Amino acid sequence: xxxxYYDNEPNHxxxxxxxxxxxxxxxxxxxxxxxxxxxxxxxxxxxxxxDENYQSLLLKGVFxxx
Length: 66
Prior knowledge:
Blueprint: E1 2-9, E2 13-18, E3 21-25, H1 28-39, E4 44-48, H2 54-60
Parallel strand pairs: 1-4
Antiparallel strand pairs: 1-2, 2-3
């Protein structure tokens, strides 16, 4: 199962980090449409990037694919 990390910045867009790299979406609707088109019935885990988990995700290497 893929883990997908996202940072929803209101009035800016959604930064998303996949195992294969980074992508930007204008809003959550566009991101959700991408997920539906590209993952369909495949399972994935969405993890929101927050101030509380940012440092642990950084240490985990989530942002290295950028």
